[in-house]
Write a structure and sequence with these properties.
- This protein has about 110 residues and is an all-alpha fold.
- The chain is built from 3 helices and no strands.
- The protein is rod-shaped and about 70 Å long.
- It starts with 9 loop residues before the first helix and ends with a helix.
- The model has no long low-confidence stretch (mean pLDDT about 80).
Amino acid sequence: PFASAAQLSAVELHAVQAFRRRAVVDLTRALEASGTGVPQLSEKLRNIASEEVTTALGETSGSKASEHCEQDATEVLEMLGALEEQRKERRQLQERRADLLAMGFQNSNE
């Protein structure tokens, strides 16, 4: 699902790989901590991408590495958004099931 890095120079590829390594660590921490939303993660990923590309290339604007990092971040954020929606739906279904079970026990005692 992530952007192909075949067209990158060795330095650009290093920057993209460094971004991905740091992003995994930060995303794991954020997902373990409750209350971290997609907007905060979006900003965090973009900052990491900018830092890694700047470290490797000395600049970020217009580089292929920067584009790859941006595309990776966008894909990850889309997946996280879908995951959050599924979690909300799951909680709603669990609550509905609990309500139905409670109603079933109330009706059987009457």
